[in-house]
User: Which sequence fits this backbone?
């Protein structure tokens, strides 16, 4: 140590460099440790616990009635409510994604235009997404009220598109299904819009000009120039939105609780009813874990897109 | 001669006319989108400020006021419900989550952005992916952990503990992007000037990153106010609940809906969140589309 100040320079330089070489990664890992510990304890551990619950007969309050193996899973496959919930979850997600994409494309092109007071206009357009869903759903619940539904008033009484008897939005199997779909679309389309917009603005201006010079019309430009460039961004946004729509409990819980009957039942709703209300944690966990393969596929695609994007 | 002149005149005019129709179509589309986006809110405003009689009177146009504006619903909300308690709960929880998130994320994000760690990039992406694990997948086991092992059943602090599971992954990711944008040169300059690494970070890198850190903080704050599932699972009494569950739990009693109060509460609770969220929406989009990966 003392030699350092006297000046055996090369040796010291060498040793500090060696020290720095392992110091830096070590510091890095230490600094990242809190985040990793947090995630491991409160995401990793619960996830493993959920796997454990799903292969055991576990009930709320720590009651344990033995190993179940795959019984929780197999009993679900024969369960008509589960089947309904499974297909509804897919149906709501698939249906709303298509509508969000269509509305989102329109919104993105709208936001590309020069508009008066654009920032404020955009803030208003984003409200469905920026408001807490649990609160805006209260507004929708009021709009779907069986007696005072403004939707029926507007489309029935005033525009004569709906006819008497007006739909009982949350009390009829068909209309309640539509209602859940509508609120999902409403909540998600602004997000689709800004994601598509982010993709569109990342396209170099010269490419669009070149396409125009070459005589490509709107649809050709869209198909051959725009789509390939914005596809990765679109996919990432889509996966993100899909995972959230698949796992969303809020809309169904607030509006229908899965009813009438089980017509709007979804996997999160059934997991809630079985796991929290019924206290059957094993079966409830098995229900939520059916979401996992669906999410997993999404995550794989997400990862590939991220890495590919980075490569570009 | 005149034909040529007419052609010459017509040519510039045609795009002009097209421009006007384009403009008209554009604003038509804008009105369509605005109507979809805002109508539910407009409807909530109406219910919040109308008298109860006005709400159910069939002779009144539901779209405007017949009797003067009334603050009766707000009055009920503030005097006869725990609204202020839910409000303070929500903001207290969000603030605590913000602090935890920053404490965990600032060192982690700096390390992942700046220090040479083998596999650091994969690490970062792995952490980010946990953001894609929805609460639905975890609320059952977490309810056991919270009410069993931690003995925090019906306790708002359980939410403070749990919310960072979704704020940390995303904020870490966002902040990484901000740190990457700080020029390495200024850090090196500080090192040359005699700072050690820690001092360089503290005195140079962090002050420069304040806008980024603030953005991340607001993000964590608003995200914590958006949750519904965990709040529903972990809190049951009015004194512990945040707004998202306190409002409906208290103002929907069996089959009776206090519509006016519900709408007033939802607006007062929701609009500040929406306004805050709107400020960092661009960062949010950038975070999701992987902008943080690029330098």
Assistant:
């Amino acid at each position: 140590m003392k030699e350092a100040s006297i000046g055996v320079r090369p040796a010291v330089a060498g040793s500090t460099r060696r020290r720095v070489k392992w110091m830096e990664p070590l510091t890095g890992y230490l600094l990242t440790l809190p985040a990793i510990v947090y995630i491991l304890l409160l995401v990793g551990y619960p996830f493993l616990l959920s796997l454990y619950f799903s292969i055991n007969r576990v009930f709320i309050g720590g009651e344990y009635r033995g190993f179940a193996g795959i019984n929780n899973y197999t009993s679900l496959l024969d369960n008509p409510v589960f089947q309904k919930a499974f297909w509804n979850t897919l149906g709501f997600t698939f249906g709303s994604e298509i509508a969000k994409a269509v509305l989102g494309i329109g919104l993105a092109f709208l936001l590309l235009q020069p508009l008066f007071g654009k920032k404020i206009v955009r803030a208003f357009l984003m409200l469905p997404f920026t408001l807490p869903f649990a609160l805006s759903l209260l507004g929708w619940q009021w709009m779907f009220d069986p007696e005072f539904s403004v939707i029926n008033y507007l489309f029935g009484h005033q525009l004569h598109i709906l006819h008497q008897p007006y739909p009982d939005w949350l009390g009829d199997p068909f209309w309640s299904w539509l209602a859940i779909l509508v609120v999902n679309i409403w909540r998600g389309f602004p997000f689709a819009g800004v994601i598509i917009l982010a993709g569109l603005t990342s396209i170099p201006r010269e490419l669009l000009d070149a396409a125009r010079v070459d005589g490509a019309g709107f649809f050709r430009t869209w198909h051959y120039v725009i789509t390939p460039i914005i596809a990765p961004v679109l996919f990432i946004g889509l996966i993100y939105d899909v995972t959230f729509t698949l796992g969303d409990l809020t809309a169904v819980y607030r509006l229908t609780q899965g009813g009438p009957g089980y017509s709007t039942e979804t996997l999160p709703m059934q997991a809630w009813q079985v796991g929290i209300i019924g206290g059957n944690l094993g079966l409830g966990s098995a229900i939520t874990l059916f979401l996992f393969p669906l999410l997993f596929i999404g995550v794989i695609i997400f990862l590939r897109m991220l890495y590919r994007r980075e490569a570009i | 001669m005149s034909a040529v002149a007419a052609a010459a005149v017509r040519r510039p005019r045609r795009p002009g006319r097209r421009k006007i129709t384009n403009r008209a179509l554009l604003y038509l589309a804008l009105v369509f989108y605005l109507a979809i986006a805002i109508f539910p809110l407009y409807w909530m405003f109406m219910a919040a400020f109308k008298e109860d009689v006005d709400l159910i009177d069939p002779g009144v146009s539901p779209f405007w006021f017949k009797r003067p504006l009334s603050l009766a619903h707000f009055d009920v909300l503030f005097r006869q419900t725990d609204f202020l308690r839910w409000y303070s709960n929500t903001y207290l929880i969000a603030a605590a989550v913000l602090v935890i998130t920053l404490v965990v994320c600032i060192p982690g994000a700096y390390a992942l952005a700046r220090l040479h760690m083998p596999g650091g990039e994969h690490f970062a992406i792995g952490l980010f992916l946990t953001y894609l694990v929805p609460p639905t997948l975890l609320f059952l086991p977490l309810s056991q952990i919270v009410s069993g092992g931690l003995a925090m059943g019906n306790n708002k602090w359980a939410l403070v503990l749990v919310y960072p599971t979704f704020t940390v992954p995303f904020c870490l990711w966002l902040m990484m992007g901000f740190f990457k944008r700080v020029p390495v040169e200024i850090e090196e300059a500080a090192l040359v000037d005699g700072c050690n690494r820690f001092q360089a970070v503290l005195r140079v890198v962090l002050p420069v990153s304040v806008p980024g850190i603030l953005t991340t903080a607001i993000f964590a704050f608003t995200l914590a106010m958006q949750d519904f599932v965990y709040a529903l699972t972990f809190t049951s009494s009015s004194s512990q609940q945040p707004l998202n569950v306190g409002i409906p739990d208290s103002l929907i009693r069996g089959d009776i809906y206090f519509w006016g109060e519900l709408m007033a509460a939802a607006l007062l609770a929701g609009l500040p969140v929406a306004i805050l969220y709107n400020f960092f929406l661009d960062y949010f989009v950038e975070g999701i589309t992987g902008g943080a990966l690029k330098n």
Notes: Chain B is about 75% helix and 0% strand. The longest helix of chain B spans residues 2-49. The beta strands of chain B are 252-253, 256-257. Chain B touches chain A through 88 residues (CB under 8 Å).
